[in-house]
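Catalogue entry: protein
Contents: sequence, fold tokens
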Amino acid sequence: MTDLRPGQILTRGLLRAMHAQGWAAISEVPLATGRRVDAMAIDGRGEITVVEVKSSVADFQSDAKWHEYRDFCDRFFFAVPLEFPQDLLPADSGLFVVDPYGGALVREAPVHKLSAARRKSLLITFGALASRRLHALENLP
């Protein structure tokens, strides 16, 4: 794991925690705006969750783009390491506490339902990205 950045290492634990919730989750999902979310998941109801990983206070304070991600999910969360001062995070977002090996859902996020058109677009993006990654892993022609 030494060649990974701190946020990437935490994202690995986050994905494990999201899968433990029963969600289908992938990292680094591009949005129509050109931005890329750290992690996105789909639950059994088809609700879309976006999680922004913050490895440090400096990482959180230097990032102004996470506000844009709320328009692309039903629920928005932060994922931070245990030592992160959680009171810095907005109370109207969910929270995961993670390490490289897993994590825990600490606070649920409020639900803000997506429009049907945006949900369809995101589900297509998610499915196509997951399929391309699986294809690459399986070394298919």
